[in-house]
Amino acid sequence: MFRKTKSVIGLDIGNHSVKAIELTSHGSTFALTACAQTDLAGEEDRARAVANLLRSMDVHTKRTVTAVSGKSVIVRYLSMIPMTDDELGKAIEFEADKYIPFDVSEVVMDHQKLSNGGAIETHADGGDKMRVLLVAAKRTLVDEAVRMVENAGLQPEIIDVDAFALGNAFEFHRLLNPEAADAASSVAALVDIGSKKTSVNILRGSDSYFTREIYLGGDEFTSAVAKKLGLRPEEAEEFKKHPGERENELVEATAQTLEDLGNEILLSLDYYENQFESRVEEIYLSGGGSLLPRLVDTFQRVFNRPTRHWNPLENLAIQAASAEAESLSASSPQWAVAVGLASRMRMRKEK
Fold it and tell me: What digits encode the pLDDT tens for the residues 186-210?
């Protein structure tokens, strides 16, 4: 009997580039069947770039998952008395204005029970509580994301959040790498460094316990290089990517900015550890900004715990015939969010 195939496109719309990746499942196996990325010339170029990129790909589906992020996206972790799904939906709707700093009529909301499907936890006060994730995004932001996908001739399936896509990618990575399953109950911090922001998602097992967006990223590294070496922004960006024999100058120029970002991330780790009395054991880095020379060494010193890059494409069969696919190994940390978005295919199938 033929195994059913299923494909989904993960579309990561960043500030400086757009990345799209198609994952296809063949029964219980998965393959990357298309990928492409393009740089953005500016904010006004975004919709056109998305459309052109997706139309250039040899894809097998129109089903697309993309994400939103930024200050118009609110994530709250709530502790609530145990209740049924119907009761929870009504309670969230009734009390939403307590948690969301926007008019409720202006946002799209969703919620989900955490702790293994809403398992009850006994708190210090003796009361039973369940952990609930509440997410709200400005409707205009969600509508814009939907419109960009539709204008490219594709079908928007899910609008996710960057930090949660990062967690999905990490869970997918564990699925493809049996040796990683040994750490499935550990506490790990996922840190994705983009051009304008750094996303942090702290996982205990497969559950997200804390997320944060820090508005420091690769652009700050570029500005530091431009200031220190007297370069124009475009020259500094190129130097940052290809310093050649002048790597020590790059390291010196970005040292303070890198230290500042590391300390901000450390505050997030401290908050989680104080809140839940549980240590973050490892930090996993992704995103284009994480490829800065000596970044791992600096962060490992700041965090005082194991810190490493991870490859969201590891052990994933590559069946895409494109120039982009040939360079995936070197750029793999940049694809974490896109992989996480496309991997929603697996999670929807399991539900």
Answer: 899 999 999 999 999 999 988 899 9
The residue-averaged pLDDT of 33-57 equals: 83
**Per-residue model confidence (pLDDT) at position 325:** 66
Cα 58 to Cα 1, 22, 335, distances in angstroms: 27, 9, 18
Domains detected in the chain:
73-138 (3.30.1490.300), 181-311 (3.30.420.40)
Average pLDDT over residues 293-311: 95
> What are the φ/ψ torsions at residue 66 (nearest 5 degrees)?
-130, -175
Residue 221: which H helix or E strand, with range?
helix 218-229
The angle at the Cα of 91, spanning 87 to 94, to the nearest 5 degrees, equals: 140
Q: Which residues of 307-345 are buried (b: 16+ CB within 10 A; e: fewer)?
A: beebbbbeebeeebeeebbeebeeebbbbbbbbbbbbbb
Which pairing describes strands 307-309 and 282-286: parallel, antiparallel, or unpaired?
parallel
